[in-house]
Amino acid sequence: MLGPMIAGIIMSIKDKGVKIHSVFFTLAQAILACVVVNSLSISVLHHIFEHWSLVLFSVLSVIIVSFGTGATLAWFRVMPGTTALWGTSPGAASTMVMLCGSFGADPRLTAFMLYFRVIIVAIATSVVSWIFVKANHATHIPTVIHGDLWPTLLLIGGSTLIGVKIRVPAAALLLTILIGATAQFTGNFHISAPLWLRIPAYLAIGWSIGLRFTAPILQYALRSIPAVLLSSLTLIAICALLAFPVAYFAHIDLLSAYLATSPGGLDTIIIISANIPIALPFIIAMQTARMIAVITLGPLIARPLGRWLEQHTLPCKNSSPPHS
Q: How many domains would you assign to the chain?
């Protein structure tokens, strides 16, 4: 998604007049929802319920810290209130970028903040894994579940059509998650999310976000890098500290606990941990639980808290993002 987004920014800055029809963005929402549902399984739910108190503590702690850093950015007028909160949400970056615009945030700045942190987290996690683990170790890589393609395509098409017609914020994404998860857990069919289906969705999302950038908004984003970097490093450090109690109470190694609490995406963590001996089922369960919590609680927290911050923080000169 980063590549198309950068390409879209370049095309927008050069004023090439390229547009992406909204129906493709809605279709991408439905496809992305299938990626979310595809990561859910009975075994993952079993691990979540087995360690429910620890998962709840970890998930809520990371969410509180992430929204706390976002509130700090908003308080010091680095970013607008709602945008700052969405931009610091821990995980589910693609989904947050798609949802945020419907809840009052700026998708461009949110995408900049989220993917900037994804890069920082990937670098930090890779370095930590390299330090703690020898290169010749290996671990079990979870089997890819291909699912049932045709029912999935019908669900995507139906959700997209409904999303275009009713114009409810993120309707296609939320409807696909609800129906897909119900069908998957009741055994009717398993959601499929093959690579050839995900790539066009990521392309459409990246282009759509990138094409909304203007030269002033890009300059504003670049000026905020020091503060965004500091907030990202703070979140990573606090999540690393949370790994100590998680490792102790879950009876797992410290590296597994660190990967479980890392504020990066589930796919990034799996890729990084592909050749190291870790408690992968626990990590997937913890990351999946947080992804579900962020998607569920994110809008409920970000909108009222963002509005309060925007009403109670004083604007500083040249601190507000340009409007487009």
A: 1
Measured CA to CA, the distance from residue 89 to residue 113 in angstroms comes to 10
- Alpha-carbon dihedral 14, 15, 19, 22, rounded to 10 degrees: 100
| Chain mean pLDDT for the chain | 80
Write the DSSP symbol of residue 59: H
Token pair, residue 256, equals 């597994």
Provide mean pLDDT across the span 81-96. Answer: 82
**153 falls within a domain:** yes
Contact predicate 122/268, CB 8 Å: yes
Residue 66, in any domain of the structure: yes
For 150-161, write each residue's pLDDT tens digit. Answer: 999 999 999 999
Task: Please compute the mean of the pLDDT values over residues 296-309 and round it to a whole number.
Answer: 84
Q: Is there a domain that residue 321 lies in?
A: no
How many Cβ atoms are within 10 Å of 14's Cβ, its own excluded? 10
d(CA 301, CA 43): 29
Cα torsion 225, 68, 108, 264: sign: positive
DSSP state of 148: B
Residue 247's domain comprises 2-13+20-312
Q: Which long-range contacts (CB under 8 A, 24 or more apart) does 63-69 make?
A: 63/90, 63/290, 63/293, 63/294, 63/297, 63/301, 65/90, 65/235, 65/238, 65/239, 66/90, 66/235, 66/263, 67/301, 67/302, 67/305, 69/231, 69/234, 69/235
Give the integer Cα–Cα distance in Å for 148 and 152: 6
Report whether 110 contacts 96 (CB < 8 A): yes
pTM of the model: 0.70
What is the structure's pLDDT at 142?
45
The answer to whether position 194 is within a domain reads yes
